[in-house]
Amino acid sequence: MIPGRHPGALHPAKGKGGAPLVLLHGFLGSPAAWDDVLSALPDHGEAWCPWLPGHGPAAPTPASFEATADWIAAALPKGAILAGYSLGARLALGAALAPLAARPDAPRATLLVSGHVGLATQQERVERDALDAKRTADLRRDLASFVAAWETLPLFASQQRLPAETLGHQRAARLAHDPESLAWAFEVAGLARMPDYRAAIAASRRPLCFLTGARDTRFSALAAALVRPPVVTHDTIAEAGHNLLLEAPAAVAAALRHLMET
């Protein structure tokens, strides 16, 4: 996932500069998902926004969640701040807690925007695996129908307040993906494939900052249960839902700025 060897968007440092940033988009997203966040930052170091595997021109590899997390961890520049949204947050968490992240040049802090921490029971995994298998079949059958159904999930209800033009741009970007490659997100990086990171979070010595929308009650409750100041923190954004990159980019920028200054 190194710039020049992997597709993505590399943004030059701006203003007074700062720590390098590595920013991971969510499922059905793209590197451009972080554009409004970066625009709201007056100062930042070089920012690398890679395509996640299976998205856009990126190949649907590695072949496991843990291998993907290790791959991301190995590519992080020294002193980087790592951030991810939703699927990207889950992979960022795995990278931040990967064995490679124990090295001195591991991410100095990680921002987890609307990120899950892994399912706690085998029964939850079985149920989620069945759901993701159905979603994968729907995705492969008809991308447009899948996207239309995805956008009606209660998780995204708060987005209905956004301008139609904004939602239209989001839909167009989603429909540009290849459904066969996108299946990677369920079959390899789906929630059923993600380890339960609760114990690792409790033992982490590097800052992990969870950021959720107040309207996203499920993910807010997950994050709140793990708070361990000053290492593990959680902030909520009033009147916002799950996709904070779309609904509250200035708030995400403020969270990144705080991590850059501490």
TrEMBL record:
Source organism superkingdom: Bacteria
Statement: the UniProt record of this protein carries the keyword Oxidoreductase: no
Record flagged with keyword DNA damage: no
Membrane-spanning parts: none
Pfam family name, one: Abhydrolase_6
Record keywords: Lyase
GO MF entries: lyase activity
Limits of the AB hydrolase-1 domain: 21-255
The protein, known as: Putative 2-succinyl-6-hydroxy-2,4-cyclohexadiene-1-carboxylate synthase
Organism the protein comes from: Blastochloris tepida
Gene behind the chain: menH
